[in-house]
Specification:
alpha/beta, 7-stranded mixed β-sheet, two-stranded antiparallel sheet, 19 helices, 11 strands, 9% strand, globular, binds 6-phosphogluconic acid, 6-phosphogluconate dehydrogenase, decarboxylating, 6PGDH_Gnd/GntZ, 6PGDH_C, EC 1.1.1.44, oxidoreductase
Length: 478
C-alpha cells in the first residue's frame, strides 16, 4: 500500500494535519526527526485511519505514491531549508513538496524557484486555525504552481473547514502567494485582537465594567455584525477565573504580548509596498510597547497624564461596539489594500472574493463580516477600497459619530486606543479633499530640490528657493 501523502514534522500542528488527512480516508506516511513522536501519534491515534510509520526521509519518500506529496511542518526558517535539502535528492520530477508552516513568502518564492529548476513543485500553504483547526478543518491558502494544485488541491479541500459546504481552500496564486495571504491574515488577526483589547480597556477603565460583566457584553456583541471567533473567545477568556487566586484570569496574566513575527512581516512588507496599513502597524507596535516593561515601570513616576475628569457619554458601551466594528472594518480594508498592491508587485492574480471566502471558516479571523466582504468583491464592479463598497460605506458612516465620541473620550481620559484612533485617522485621511502632503512637498523641494507637481499644469517643477523664488520645470524626483 502506498501513501497518498507524507508528513514530516509531527509536533502538534503536523500531527493534527496528518490525523486530519487520515480521518478523511487518505493513507498518510509519517516521519519525525525523532521516531518517538511518530510512535506516540500511532499509539494514541493509530486507529483513526491508515498510517505508515517511517524512520528516515528516504523511507518516507519510498512509501509514497507518485507524484509524491511530502508535507513539511517544521519551524519556519532554517529548519525548512534543511528538510528540503535532505528531501530533494530523494525525489523525482513532478513530485510536490509542501511547506505548511508560517514561512515568510520571500523564502517561499526563493524555494519555489530553486525546486522548479529541478523539476519539482514547491507549494507554500498558509494554514490557519491553530491546533484544533489543523485537526478538524483549517482554512488553507495554497500557493505554488497551478499544476501542482490539480494533484494536491482535492486533498487539501477535503481536510479544510467548510462554510455552507464550501471548502475554505482554494489556490490563491503562484509561488509565495499562499504564504503572503496567510501573512496578511495574521496582520489582520493582530489588529482584530488589538481592537478587542482597546474595547475591553475602555469598558473597564471608562465604563467601569469588570471582566465578568464584559464577558456578557462581548457575548451580546457576538450576536450582531461583530459576530466572529475572536469575539466569541474574548467572552470566554474574560469570564475565566484564576483557580489559584479567584481573580479574573486576565488580572493575573503579565500584560506583555508576545509575537512570533508574522504581524511584523506584514508591516515590513506593507512599508515596502507603500500600502498604508496603519491599524495593523499600530497593533504590532502596541505589542512592542506592552513588552517594554522596564520603561513602562519607570514611566509610572515620570510621565504626567493630566487626564480630564469627564463623564463618559451616555450609551458609551454601544459606542465602543460601533468603534470596534468600524476599526475592524478599516483593518480588513487595509489588509485587502495590501493584497491588491502585492498582486501588482509580484504578478499574482489574487481574487479578493475567493480570499475572503477562505477566511469565512476555520481560520482565526473567521467572522460573519467576511461573507459580506466576499460578496463585495464578487461584484462586477469591484470597489477600489473595501470601505467604498456600498454596504460598508453605509455601515461605517453609521458608526462614525460613535467612533469619534469614543476616540475623543479615550484621549481625554488618557486611555490609549492606537488602532481605534489611527483607523479613524485613516478614514478621515481617505475622505479629506486636501492633505498636508502639499506642504511636505514644498518642504522637500526647499531643502532637497525634490520637485513637485502642480494641480493646474502637467509636468514637474522646482522653485528656486534660494534665488528669486521663480519656478522652473524640473526632472521628476518627487
Ligand atoms: C493561525 C494563527 C497562527 C498563530 C500565529 C500567530 O492563523 O492559526 O495566526 O498561525 O497564532 O503564529 O502568532 P503570534 O501572535 O505569536 O505572532
Amino acid at each position: 500500500m502506498s501513501a497518498h501523502i507524507g508528513v514530516t514534522g509531527l509536533a502538534v500542528m503536523g500531527a493534527n494535519l496528518a490525523r486530519n488527512f487520515a480521518r478523511n480516508g487518505y493513507t498518510v506516511a509519517l516521519h519525525n526527526r525523532s521516531a518517538a513522536k511518530t510512535d506516540t501519534l500511532l499509539e494514541n491515534y493509530g486507529d483513526e485511519g491508515d498510517f505508515i510509520r517511517t524512520e528516515t526521509l528516504a523511507e518516507l519518500v519510498e512509501a509514497l505514491e507518485k507524484p509524491r506529496r511530502v508535507l513539511i511542518m517544521v519551524k519556519a526558517g532554517g529548519p525548512v531549508d534543511s528538510v528540503i535539502d535532505q528531501l530533494v535528492p530523494l525525489l523525482d520530477e513532478g513530485d510536490i513538496v509542501i511547506d505548511a508552516g508560517n514561512s515568510h513568502y520571500e523564502d517561499t518564492r526563493r524555494r519555489e524557484a530553486a525546486l522548479a529548476e529541478k523539476g519539482l513543485h514547491f507549494v507554500g500553504i498558509g494554514v490557519s486555525g491553530g491546533e484544533e483547526g489543523a485537526l478538524l478543518g483549517p482554512s488553507i491558502m495554497p500557493g505554488g504552481s497551478r499544476e501542482s494544485y490539480d494533484s494536491l488541491g482535492p486533498m487539501l479541500e477535503k481536510i479544510a473547514a467548510k462554510y455552507d459546504g464550501d471548502p475554505c481552500c482554494r489556490w490563491v496564486g503562484t509561488d509565495g502567494a499562499g504564504h503572503f495571504v496567510k501573512m496578511v491574515h495574521n496582520g489582520i488577526e493582530y489588529a482584530d485582537m488589538q481592537v478587542i483589547g482597546e474595547a475591553s480597556d475602555l469598558l473597564r477603565s471608562a465604563a467601569g465594567l469588570e471582566p465578568a460583566q464584559q464577558a456578557e457584553v462581548f457575548t451580546e456583541w457576538n450576536k450582531g455584525p461583530l459576530s466572529s471567533f475572536l469575539i466569541e473567545i474574548t467572552a470566554e477568556v474574560l469570564a475565566h477565573q484564576d483557580a489559584k487566586t479567584g481573580k479574573p484570569f486576565i488580572d493575573v496574566v503579565v500584560d506583555s504580548a508576545g509575537q512570533k513575527g508574522t504581524g511584523r512581516w506584514t508591516v515590513v512588507s506593507a512599508l515596502e509596498l507603500g500600502s498604508p496599513v496603519s491599524g495593523i502597524a499600530e497593533s504590532v507596535f502596541a505589542r512592542g510597547l506592552s513588552s517594554q516593561r522596564d520603561q513602562r515601570e519607570l514611566a509610572q513616576d515620570i510621565l504626567a497624564g493630566h487626564e480630564d475628569r469627564i463623564q463618559v457619554p451616555e450609551g458609551f458601551v454601544d459606542d465602543v461596539r460601533q468603534a470596534l466594528f468600524a476599526s475592524k472594518l478599516v483593518s480588513y480594508a487595509q489588509g485587502i489594500d495590501m493584497l491588491t498592491a502585492a498582486a501588482t508587485e509580484y504578478g499574482w492574480d489574487l481574487k479578493l472574493d475567493e480570499i475572503a471566502s477562505l477566511w469565512r471558516a476555520g481560520c482565526i479571523i473567521r467572522a460573519e463580516l467576511l461573507d459580506d466582504i466576499m460578496k463585495a468583491y464578487a461584484d462586477e464592479d469591484k470597489p477600489a477600497n473595501l470601505l467604498f463598497a456600498p454596504a460598508f460605506a453605509a455601515a461605517i458612516a453609521d458608526a462614525v459619530p460613535a467612533w469619534r465620541r469614543v476616540v475623543a473620550t479615550a484621549v481625554q481620559l488618557g486611555i490609549p486606543v492606537p488602532v481605534f484612533s489611527s483607523s479613524l485617522a485613516y478614514y478621515d485621511g481617505l475622505r479629506r479633499k486636501r492633505l498636508p502632503a502639499a506642504l511636505t512637498q514644498g518642504l522637500r523641494d526647499l531643502f532637497g530640490a525634490h520637485t513637485y507637481r502642480r494641480i493646474d499644469t502637467e509636468g514637474t517643477f522646482h522653485t528656486l528657493w534660494s534665488g528669486d523664488k521663480s519656478e522652473v520645470s524640473a526632472v521628476d524626483t518627487h
